[in-house]
Every structure is written in structure tokens, then in C-alpha cells.
Amino acid sequence: MRFSSNVKPHVLLLIVGTILLLGYVYFNFFSERLNGDILINEDQKSTSLSRLVFRSRVRNMVSPEKLLYKQPSVLVGRTDVVSVTPWLAPIVWEGTFDPVLVDNIYKPMNLTVATTVFAIGKYVRFLQDFLETAEKHFMVGFHVRYYVFTDRPHDVPSVNLSQGRHLSVIQVPGSNRWQEISARRMEIIQTTIERQIRREADYIFCLDVDSKFHARWGSESLGRLVAVIHPGYYEQTRDRFPYERRPASTAYIPMDEGDYYYGGAMIGGFVEDVYTLTKVCRTRFEEDAGNSIEAAWQEESHLNRYLLDNKPSKVLSPEYLWQDFKAKTKEVKVIRFSGVIKNYADVRPNV
């Protein structure tokens, strides 16, 4: 390249410097493209390396070819209950889904469903009925991994599990207060997801051990974030819900807010979404504890606050969380899962 003798030296230096700079940028850009790497700073590198990896992912609803099932209708169906929320999440009742169709959509996905239960202290006595009835009715035909948290691992009963179903016993400390046991559930589920469950399952259901299955609980219950309507309050207005009403608590819900009252005996969804829920609720628990506050119904209060802000993608009707002391109502055609009758003074460490 030749330059006119009239070009001043400082201008010449500027031109040459610009050319060199453009060449450097060009070289680095294409070098990165060829190597497939994107330069990141050390903080970004640390964050990406520490990010948890989950198995859960959204899949298409693919129906097998030539599958025969009853034609759905937009005019005929349940008229005695509401089957969709205001944010367009389905509310699952008997008669709102085709079990043959949904099973044939989900089973080819080769999913694994994690199921956690806490059998602390005398609550271990409920574990055998829980597991035996689950083997008959819960996610039949799917891979299921039970995670039993207990302070009495030697009292965990031996139950025959179907092929593709496994049980892990995880020892945790007991407590002299049932409220503390309840409060620590979120923390224990969160840490177990981090260490183990995220690598072993696609979906997770966190259930109460003092319960039994009575009828099908299947793939119709699967969703990104799943909650269940509490059987004691589905006929009540929001001002009658036992939300945490003290503004000082992070679980606080004002009298004029709230959708449904969700039962704390069931949390479900993608492992990743339930992980986020437990992590947030644990943080709020700890913040309340630092301010000497215990929410009215421990994890259930924090669960309801979380689900008010983060709407569930699917809501299960009270069929999926009944209470044995309640008579079945006309809306509840099938009782699928229910809490057993018990003497709290006998099974809880404190009343």
C-alpha cells in the first residue's frame, strides 16, 4: 500500500492503527466461530459450571397411530364443577380426561416419577399402607422412585414393588415438635433434588405418608407445576381460607386475595419447578424464623403464598386429596387419595 507524501505522519499512524485493530477483531471473531467457543468472564464461567442440570423437559403430546378412544365433545361433559382455572390451567376431575388416551401419550415418553414421603417418628406406621396402595393405584405402568425420609430406617417395611419401581431410604433427624418436622420438609426436598433426584426423575410428587390410594392416580396428574385443592375449603370463599394473615410473615396473603386453598399434602410437577418452589419456600421460612415468626400452617402457608404468585399449570381436584373422616360429596365421583383417620396425640411428638 502506498501513501501520498502529502499525508501527515500522525494521520498515517491513525490509518495503520485502525487497519491493525480491524484485523485483530476479524481474526478473533472467526477464530471463536471456528472453535465453537464464546468468551466469558470468570464470574460467568463459575455461574454456568454451578448451574444444576435437570432431566425434565417439555414434550409434544403425540397420540399413537390408530388408537381408538371416545370422541371428545365441546358440548357434553361435567357441568357440576369448574374444570379450568381463570388462567386456563385444567382442574382435573373424574370425567374430564380419557385415561386410555393420556396414558398412551405419556407412557412412550419413558418417564420416571419421583415420590417423596416423610415417615418421621411414629408416622413410620403409615408407610406400609401408603406403599402397598401406591403399588396398586399410583402411576401404574410408569417408572417410579420412592424416597422415604425417616429417622427410623430399620422400621421401614419390606414391600413388593413392581418392575421399574424402586425405593430409597434416606435417614433424617427426628424432632420433638411436629411443626419443625413440617417446616424442614422444604429444605430436605430441595437438597435431595440437588444431590440425587434431578438426575433420576422427570417429575416429582411430594406426598403425605399418613394417606392411602383408593383409585387411579395416573398420567392425567402430570404437569409443569401441579397443586391440589384442599378438600376442606373448596366450597369456601377466600376470606374463609386459613392463609397466613399477619403482614410480618413472608407467607402473608391479604383478605381480598387468593385463588384456591391448596393442600400441603401434595406438591408436584417437573423436578426443576418443584425444586424452585422448595428453594423459595425454604428461604422464606428462614426469613420468618429470623424474625421469630412461624406461619400459621408452616409449609402449607408458604406453599399457598408461592402458588398465588406462581400459578400452577395444572390443578388436581379434591379427588386427589380427600379426608377419610369426610363423607363423599356429590361432586367427588371418585376418591383417589385420602388422609387416614388418626389420633394426633398418639402419633405426633407434641400436640
TrEMBL record:
Single GO BP term: carbohydrate metabolic process
Sample GO molecular function, one term: metal ion binding
Binding site for UDP-N-acetyl-alpha-D-galactosamine: 118-120, 123, 208-210
Protein's membrane topology: Single-pass type II membrane protein
InterPro entries according to UniProt: Glyco_trans_6
Keyword Transmembrane recorded: yes
Cofactors that this protein relies on: Mn(2+)
Residues annotated for Mn(2+) binding in this entry: 208, 210
UniProt cofactor note: Binds 1 Mn(2+) ion per subunit.
Keywords annotated in UniProt: Glycosyltransferase, Manganese, Membrane, Metal-binding, Signal-anchor, Transferase, Transmembrane, Transmembrane helix
Pfam hit, one: Glyco_transf_6
GO cellular component: Golgi apparatus; membrane; vesicle
Domain of life where this protein originates: Eukaryota
Active site: 300
Sites where the protein binds an alpha-L-fucosyl-(1->2)-beta-D-galactosyl derivative: 230, 300
Subcellular location field: Membrane
Classification via PANTHER family: GLOBOSIDE ALPHA-1,3-N-ACETYLGALACTOSAMINYLTRANSFERASE 1 (PTHR10462:SF49), GLYCOSYLTRANSFERASE-RELATED (PTHR10462)
Family according to the record: Belongs to the glycosyltransferase 6 family.
Name of the protein: Globoside alpha-1,3-N-acetylgalactosaminyltransferase 1
